[in-house]
């Protein structure tokens, strides 16, 4: 099976003895690994070798893990299918005619195919949960600030988090235990809670758990996806949980707000890739502006260029208040809706993705289709909350993921609920 799950296949073994000894781990190719090429799925960084490890990579090594390579991804994390990579698309091991989801598609495919025991991905608007759902594995997007982002090549700083992908809920939670915790290199990490035991929460005990179902996140889903989703909730109810529908009207504006914010932050973050500070060197004759333009023209793919242009436009004079400021207002509305919902429920549930995995090439000519597919995942990132995707059944032989969303730093609750779904 040739899935193209890795950009760089190279083993880095640890001398330490720890909770991940004997475990092989794929690391998404936007997470810095000392001495190991880190490309972000882009020609712009095809020869970049970081001089240091990201904090999460240091923690993997300290825990005894063996890194088996850098996983393929949508270029700079911009995509929902792992088809925008400069190194070719990754295939879904469940059905090789389908995409694995994105942008952490290489990480999820590697785990689903058994090419790695565990993996790290990053989630800016669903990029761990989407491929986990499409490949039939477990993915956790942690609360913003639980896991250090030091060493992550930034796409949208205020939204993204590093998180685990694994075959089971307990394994994903155990990997989260290793990488979570404060970091002096990342001021956004919370200081308390250095020791965690999320894996112990995977006990399947949902007696008395109250689940809210946002109607707006279910209505537009594919019928087969909805059927698998409601079956999973009925199983949770049979184990002692109860569920009822809630309304979160702000989520209807979440996709638009998310893309304005994410693209705006991307246009700022990616300015450093100019062929001088970072990236493919122009080496061109003429003035600096010409060399800068040519380096970015040749180094970036079409999806990255699209998002940089849209983000720059949203931040430009005369349009900042019209687009970016309104997007931030919508973000605050989303947070308020989540806060209100968690006054009455312990977790929220929805289909992770509203549709089954796309066929390869299906969404490349229609970026809007790809953006809209993020409708159920991006509200979580806007509110900086934790969420997990756990396999919940199938539709036409393709995996369906159930998304469970928790309150801030409520990882134990969503791990417990997800383990009940798994059981």
TrEMBL record:
One of its GO terms (molecular function) is transferase activity. Gene3D superfamilies: Amidase signature (AS) domain. The keyword Transmembrane does not apply. Keywords: ATP-binding, Ligase, Nucleotide-binding, Protein biosynthesis, Transferase. GO terms for biological process: translation. Pfam families: Amidase. The active site is at residues 28, 103, 127. Residues 1-20, 78-108 are annotated as: Disordered. It comes from the Archaea. Residues 13-414 form the Amidase domain. Transmembrane segments: none annotated. It catalyses: L-glutamyl-tRNA(Gln) + L-glutamine + ATP + H2O = L-glutaminyl-tRNA(Gln) + L-glutamate + ADP + phosphate + H(+). One of its GO terms (cellular component) is glutamyl-tRNA(Gln) amidotransferase complex. The keyword Protein biosynthesis applies. Its EC number is 6.3.5.7. Heterotrimer of A, B and C subunits. Allows the formation of correctly charged Gln-tRNA(Gln) through the transamidation of misacylated Glu-tRNA(Gln) in organisms which lack glutaminyl-tRNA synthetase. The reaction takes place in the presence of glutamine and ATP through an activated gamma-phospho-Glu-tRNA(Gln). Belongs to the amidase family. GatA subfamily. This is Glutamyl-tRNA(Gln) amidotransferase subunit A. It comes from Haloferax larsenii.
């Amino acid at each position: 099976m040739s899935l193209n799950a890795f950009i760089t296949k190279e083993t880095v073994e640890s001398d330490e003895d720890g909770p991940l000894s004997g475990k092989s781990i794929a690391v998404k190719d936007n997470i810095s690994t000392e001495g190991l090429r880190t490309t972000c799925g882009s020609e712009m960084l095809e020869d970049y070798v970081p001089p240091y490890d990201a904090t999460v990579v240091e923690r993997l090594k300290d825990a005894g893990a063996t890194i088996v390579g850098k996983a393929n991804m949508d270029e700079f994390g911009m995509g929902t299918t792992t088809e925008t990579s400069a190194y070719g698309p990754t295939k879904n091991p469940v059905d090789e005619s389908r995409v694995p989801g994105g942008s952490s598609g290489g990480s999820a495919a590697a785990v689903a195919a058994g090419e790695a025991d565990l993996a790290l991905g990053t989630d800016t608007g669903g990029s761990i949960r989407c491929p986990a759902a499409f490949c039939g594995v477990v993915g956790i997007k942690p609360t913003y600030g639980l896991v250090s982002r030091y060493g992550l090549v930034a796409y949208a700083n205020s939204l993204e988090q590093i998180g685990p992908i694994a075959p089971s809920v307990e394994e994903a939670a155990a990997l989260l235990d290793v990488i979570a915790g404060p970091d002096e290199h990342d001021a956004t990490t919370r200081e308390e809670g250095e020791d965690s035991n999320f894996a112990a929460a995977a006990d399947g005990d949902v007696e008395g758990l109250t689940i809210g179902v946002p109607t707006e996140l279910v209505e537009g889903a594919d019928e087969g996806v909805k059927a698998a989703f409601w079956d999973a909730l009925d199983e949770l109810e049979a184990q002692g949980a109860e569920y009822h529908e809630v309304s979160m009207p702000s989520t209807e504006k979440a996709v638009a707000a998310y893309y304005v914010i994410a693209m705006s932050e991307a246009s700022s973050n990616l300015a450093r890739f100019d062929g001088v500070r970072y990236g493919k060197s122009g080496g061109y004759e003429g003035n600096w502006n010409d060399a800068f333009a040519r380096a970015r023209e040749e180094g970036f793919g079409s999806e990255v260029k699209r998002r940089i242009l849209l983000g720059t436009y949203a931040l430009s004079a005369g349009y900042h208040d019209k687009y970016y400021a309104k997007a931030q207002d919508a973000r605050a509305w989303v947070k308020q809706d989540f806060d209100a919902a968690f006054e009455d429920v312990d977790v929220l549930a929805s289909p992770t993705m509203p549709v089954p995995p796309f066929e390869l090439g299906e969404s490349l000519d229609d970026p809007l289709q790809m953006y809209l597919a993020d409708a159920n995942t991006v509200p979580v990132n806007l509110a900086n909350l934790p969420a997990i995707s756990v396999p919940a059944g199938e539709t036409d032989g393709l995996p369906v993921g159930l998304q469970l969303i928790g309150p801030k730093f409520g990882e134990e609750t969503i791990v417990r609920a997800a383990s009940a779904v798994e059981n």
